[in-house]
Specification:
This protein is an alpha/beta fold and 261 residues long. The chain has helices at residues 13-16, 19-28, 41-53, 76-83, 106-123, 135-145, 161-169, 187-192, 229-240, 244-259; strands spanning 3-8, 31-36, 58-62, 89-98, 127-132, 152-154, 173-176, 201-203. Strands 1-2-3-4-5-6-7-8 form an 8-stranded parallel β-sheet.
């Protein structure tokens, strides 16, 4: 089986310090490609640099995470547009709304989200989105833009059935992480994952975060890596009642089409 991890924060220092080994372990586990997540101008630039270092294994996104929305300045749009000219950039994001922590004011988050949706439209690129405790506002904005956007993935979906149905109605893709492996917080997601059509489901680790809690052997570091993506696929297949080889092939095809890999 081969896999694509659609969301890994490889520029995080906990992974950067041993990145060769991280990528080698991923490849040995069948993870053929990894989409490196851009979360700021600096991190997006670093993601592109990594893609040039590992051109066969990595592609990336460029964007401003809602946590950093208040960092948006007059030339941010131009910077993102210039970064997007690199062939390894396959989507705009991580962008969206996070009303759980509100590291940036909500109005700034909304403005930053809208600006990046406008950019994605102008570049005809997919959008890699983040939503936490902001569904009503988030989906309302998506409804305004959806017809003009090429493709949208709701990354690291952990929300309710109603939210999932809203996203599917808008023809969004859904990214599933190791949250589904959590016997405390992932129970609702385990029940919902079967509702996601095979051409809308993609998988991701969100490394170094969200280490699957049910790994038979957990790393002493407690750091999540793309090498654990096959484990997540196994858990998703279990809760979808689907053969794991079939699910892996479907996710691979869907991810290739979404990111043009």
């Amino acid at each position: 089986m081969e896999f694509i991890d659609i969301g890994a924060n490889l520029t995080n220092r906990s992974l950067m310090k041993d990145l060769d080994a991280v990528i080698t372990r991923a490849a040995n586990a069948g993870v053929r490609q990894i989409v490196v997540t851009g979360t700021s101008i600096d991190e997006s630039s670093k993601a592109i640099e990594l893609c040039y270092q590992y051109p066969d294994q990595l592609v990336c996104t460029v964007g401003i995470h809602p946590h950093h929305a208040s960092d948006w300045i007059s030339d941010t749009q131009t910077s993102l547009q210039n970064l997007s000219k690199n062939a390894c950039v396959r989507a705009i994001g991580e962008t969206g709304l996070d009303f759980n922590r509100n590291y940036s004011p909500r109005d700034d988050q909304i403005d930053c989200f809208r600006r990046q949706l406008d950019l994605a439209i102008s570049l005809n690129k997919p959008v890699f989105t983040h939503q936490r405790d902001a569904h009503d506002t988030f989906v309302g904005i998506l409804r305004e833009y959806r017809e003009r956007l090429s493709k949208v993935v709701v990354h690291c979906f952990t929300d309710s059935k109603a939210a999932l149905l809203d996203y599917l109605e808008l023809d969004c893709h859904i990214g599933i992480t190791g949250w589904i492996c959590d016997e405390r917080r992932g129970l609702e997601l385990q029940q919902l994952v079967g509702l996601i059509p095979d051409n809308r489901l993609m998988v991701e680790t969100d490394a170094p975060y969200l280490l699957p809690r049910d790994l038979p052997v957990k790393p002493a570091s407690r750091i999540n890596e793309p090498t654990y993506l096959p484990h997540i696929i196994n858990v998703v297949a279990l809760h979808q009642g689907k053969d794991v080889d079939q699910l892996a092939a479907e996710c691979l095809k869907t991810s290739q089409l979404f990111f043009d890999i």
